[in-house]
Structures are given as structure tokens and as C-alpha cells.
Amino acid sequence: MASPPHFYAIVDRLMPWLIAIFVLLVLAGLYDGLFLAPADYQQGDSYRIIFIHVPSAWMSLFIYVVMALAGAIGLVWRIKLAEIVAISSAPVGASFTFIALLTGSLWGKPMWGTWWVWDARLTSELILLFLYLGVMGLYNAIDDKRAASRAVAILALVGVVNIPIIHYSVEWWSTLHQGPTVTKIDKPSIHISMLIPLLLMAVAFKFFYIIAMLQRAQTELLLREQNAQWVKAITGLGVDDELA
Amino acid sequence: MMNWHEFFAMGGYAFYVWSAYGVTFIVLLINFILPVLQRHRFFRQQVLKQKRQKS
After folding, report:
1. Is B4 touching A (CB cutoff 8 A)?
2. What are the pLDDT digits (tens) for B6-53?
3. A23 to chain B: which residues are within 8 Å by CB?
4. Which of A38, A101, A115, B29 registers the highest number of CB atoms within 10 A of its CB?
5. pTM, whole model, 2 decimals?
């Protein structure tokens, strides 16, 4: 599993299945969220934005933790695949963070009357976006990719302090942003007809992360190992060399 | 079951709901396609390199 050619081949074989599961989940989630779930008694149909907003926000935190953990593993054990998983997670995490911010804004305008407030939740989520962009920029700025991976891992690990701040921001500071409704310890204060599409979309987005991250990891692996024999075999170079 | 017009109107929140969903799926699509394109470009470059080496 840890050898690059093996990893590349396994991802090739898994990809159609992952995509099929993602498409099924997302179609079910959209149908459930946009057609079946009733309108909210206070927010009307605008609340349907939560079915992408909340899962994206969850993913923005989840991917960051995965990226920092993979970075740490790469840093300590010098495992190339861990480095590649870390850097391949960054653009996907940045995308979900952007989606969380944008859909939040599109929900905030009709409900709060404003696109944006500089409160703890929104600001710490914006900092998360900058952390992702910083990781991507730093990686691209260093030519030696092994060194770049180490630098990126350290930056990602330092940024981990932001994760609990985002999570608890709605409890520590007073804010326009509502508190958690699903992850409350006793009982979620969300109706089951709204909870099901939310969870469907959450699982779908998790699959999307796996798909997009693995696609990037494959490409990154090819670029990093372009002189290795297994890459030449895939591109057809190795075979022709032997014939010539 | 509501009718289609009502569905697209989203109770008056059509702009907010549909732009949220629209941008989300555009961003996801870009995430999916970009690394695939990048890989194709890599394969093309490798083939060109091979041709250059041969001539």
C-alpha cells in the first residue's frame, strides 16, 4: 500500500466505485433536501442552504485535521505518501472553506440582513481559508518537494490551534451565528426530515473529499516520480526504451 | 407535491438558494476536473519528450 506504484493502481481501481457512491448520495441528498424536506416555519425555504453550508463547514475542519495529521506523519516518519496526502488535501479543504463562507453569506443576507459580520465564527473560518491558501502557496514556492512538504507540515500544525477556536467560537463569544443544532450532546434540535438530507450531504461531501484528494495525489505522485521506472511504464516510455 | 414554478421560486429565496447550490457544484466540479487535466498534460509532455529523445 505504501509503495507509490501500488497506491496509484489501487486508486485507479477504486475511483469508479467512489464516484458512483458519491453520485448516489448526492442525488439522494438533493432530492431529500430540496423536494421532500418541509420549509422551515421561521426561515421558509432559505434554510435549505444548510444542506450544503453545514456539511461544507464540517469538511473544512475535518480536512484541515487530516492534512495536519498526514503532514505530521510525513514529518516524523518521512513517508512520501503521507506528504502527498497532506498537500493534496489543501485545495479541497480550501474549496470547502470557501463554500462554507459563501453559502453562509448567501444565507446571512436574507436572515440576518447582512452578507458578513466580523464575529468570532466568521473571522476564524476566514483565517482557516488563509491557512489553506498559505499551505498551497508555501508548497509551490519551494522547488524541492520533500523540503516543501516539511515546511507545509509545520505551518499546518501551527494552524491547528484555529480548529477548536472555530468550533467553540459560537459558545465562547456572543455572535449572530447560531449555536450547534446537530452535535449537541443530549439531543439534536433539528427535525428528522431535515436531519436526514443533512447527513446524506455530509457523507456525500466526505466521499467527494476522498475522490478529489486521491485524484490530486495520483497527479502529484506522477510529477514527483516522473523519472521512476513505474511512471515510465504507465506513460509507455519504459516499454519503448527497451525496444529501442 | 408542489409544482415546478413553486419549486424554482424557493418561497422567494430563489436567488440565495440557487446561487448557493450553483456555486457549490461549480467549485466541486473544478476540484474534480483540474487534477485530471493536469495528469493528461503530464502524459502529453512525456510523449513529446520521448519523441524528442528518439529524433
Report:
1. no
2. 888 888 898 999 999 999 999 999 999 999 999 999 999 888 887 888
3. none
4. A101
5. 0.92
